[in-house]
Amino acid sequence: MKVATAAYNLDWLDSWAQYEDKLDSWVSDAAGQGAELLVFPEYGAMELSTLDGAEVAGDLERSIHAVSDRMEDVRNLHRRLAQEYKTYILGASAPVVDGPGRPVNRAAFYGPDGKQDHQDKQIMTRFERESWDIAPGGPLKLFDTALGKIGVLICYDSEFPLLGRALSEADLILVPSCTEALSGYWRVRIGAMSRALENQCVTVMSSLVGANDWSEAVDLNTGTGGIFGPPDKGFPATGVLAEGTLNQPGWTYAEVDMSAIACVRSDGHVLNRTHWDEQSPRVDSVTISAL
User: Fold this and answer.
1) How far apart are CA 107 and CA 122, in angstroms?
2) Largest CB tally within 10 Å, which of 24, 106, 215, 227?
3) CB proximity list for 95: less than 8 A, separation 6 or greater
4) pLDDT for residue 284
5) Which residue, among 93, 13, 1, has the nearest Cα to 57 in the 3D structure?
6) How confident is the model over 228-267, as pLDDT tens digits?
7) Helices 60-69 & 71-85 angle (0-180, nearest 10)
8) What is the residue extent of each domain of the chain?
């Protein structure tokens, strides 16, 4: 299959129609290149707060609720685009108020048959905890699709190996991200590449890029798209199937051979995924040695 992952820049929006046109252009471009799976980044939906004006977009709490209030229209738009262009789409994540508690960070996943589901972020960064007060959402999910089994680890989640291991049956793990600094981008990228190594699968990282002085939440963003596999048989020696240009908006594409994933899992030079459980008795018996 062909995968497209976004380095996505936010725009100031003067109308809902402008947002519809933007998303249609992005999706049609990727579908026109033959992409069957499209991945948008974490918090890419924050540009919707501009539809309520500068005062709302610039206020952290009000912008969260302004975006959440538009999510039904966002879901309808993405569902239509996925069906029209016959693609799977992981939409940009958004803060979503779902019940009486605090908002969660949610990425919705759309299929070409009109079906949809979502994945919530599991572990919050310090900014999400201390400034946004974003709450952990529902459990991890494994999406069984016509393309294969697909999991989602939103940004910081990709840096935790036990979350990745919970998705060990996934052929692909999608990693939508939003990172302010180059160091943050590399933390998530290293996490994504590590999960590809451990699970002997393909990980697909998307990034928010660009500066937005109208927002307190997503004012500066650094990153690019990247598609990674295990550095083993059937994959590049670096593990990098494709990577974009840092901070340059656009799609990054890669062809993903599902048979290569099955092959490396059964007959790779190493078998990290199979040998995972051999860690347990060894870490349980750590001893202290004085030197």
Assistant:
1) 12
2) 227
3) 43, 64, 67, 68, 103, 104, 105, 106, 132, 134
4) 83
5) 13
6) 999 999 999 999 999 999 999 999 999 999 999 999 999 9
7) 50
8) 2-283
32: its two tokens: 């026109």
142 CB-contact burial (10 Å; exposed 0-12 / middle 13-18 / buried 19+): middle
pLDDT tens digit string along 65-105?
Answer: 999 999 999 999 999 999 999 999 999 999 999 988 999 99
The CB density around residue 67, as the number of other CB atoms within 10 Å, is: 27
Surface-to-core class of residue 64, CB atoms within 10 Å of its CB (0-12 exposed, 13-18 middle, 19+ buried): buried
pTM over 0.85: yes
What's the angle, vertex CA 91, arms to CA 85 and CA 93, rounded to 5? Answer: 175
The C-alpha atoms of residue 18 and residue 36 are separated, in whole angstroms, by 25
Contact 84, 24 (CB under 8 A): no
The two three-digit tokens of residue 152, written as one number: 């989602």
Q: 269 burial class (0-12, 13-18, 19+ CB within 10 angstroms)? A: exposed
CB 268 within 8 A of CB 239: no
Look at the domain 2-283 and name its fold. Nitrilase/N-carbamoyl-D-aminoacid amidohydrolase (3.60.110)
Q: For the chain, which ranges sit under pLDDT 50? A: none
